[in-house]
Design a protein that fits this description.
By secondary structure, this protein is an alpha/beta fold. It is built from 17 helices and eight strands. α2 packs antiparallel against α15 and α5 packs parallel to α7.
Length: 365
Amino acid sequence: MTVFSQLIQSFVDDVGSRRKVRSAASIEKFHSWVQAQPKVETHVHLEAGVAPGFYESLNRPNTWSSSYPWQRAPFANLREFIMAWVDLSRSIRTPSDVEALAESFVASRVPQNIRYTEAYFSPADLSFMRRRFQIAPEIFDFSEVLHAYVRGLKRGLAAHPGFEVRLVMDALWPSTADERLEMKTVLRQSLESNDFFDAQGRPLIVAIGLGGSESHHDLEGHREFVNDVRALGFKIDIHSGEGNTVEMHRTSVETLSPDRVAHGFVGVQSGYLFGSNVVMCPLSNLLLKTFSGRAEDHPAFRLLREDVPILIGSDDPLLLGHDLSAEFSFIYAIEESFDESKFLQIQENTRKRVFAPGVCEQVLS
């Protein structure tokens, strides 16, 4: 069994050139065990959380002529990765494609035995960003594409009982005031529609995220937006501390008071940790070169050794060539203090910090 892609194995081999790492047989045994465990994940992007076959089934854009977006790793930097993500999204041309994407994402959870997921999804990219940057000729109405994601999610959940997915709508750091106003209006309307609730009357969109470039220029505008959507009942989950400075990271966190922070390692390196609910993605940070140190020096490993209750996510597995089980197996391969009990502890930490605890506990019971 091959646990890691060639790129990820190169990180393990590099660490092995300096000190002892786990044997291949031990890694394979651990990986099989993790795959079988019922899991919870709170950091994965829906659009990059499906198998390549989904996108191969669509009408591919001309920009894919040289290579598929998921064949472009290793990426030179975060911007190069973002351009691959944008190129991936160009194949989404109709609301039916969006529905099929969400349905396929639910199906992707089944072979990994990820029973409960909180996934970022990006209607703003297919509407506002397409209009502003002329990314693709098919520009979706924001409300229309939001409905399409949820319709597909419902189909996927109906087809796979025993698995649950809740959505974190990415409102994007680069959004404008007008875009945020439209998003807020549509979100308010969604609370009055049964379309956005499951059969038990529980919301399918549980939080609002801020992703994309973290070098924002309108923090006060974001604070107003965040406070308004929080008042509607949504949790707040921001990407920060991956592509910005520690000063900007700290200011963002302290200004917006999010319920969860994604990445955050820049802060940890400088002694600042958003301690209540942080999700870290070591492989993503290494593969995107947002963390430039040696693999074993990623701040997540120190926090794990100190029993800080961090969470672990897979981020963008399609483009980076791994999944949640491989993320945990990578940690196991190079961190001698990590074992089955530590994995179970992280999963317990995750269950305690989800945004829809009743849904999570029901599907795991």
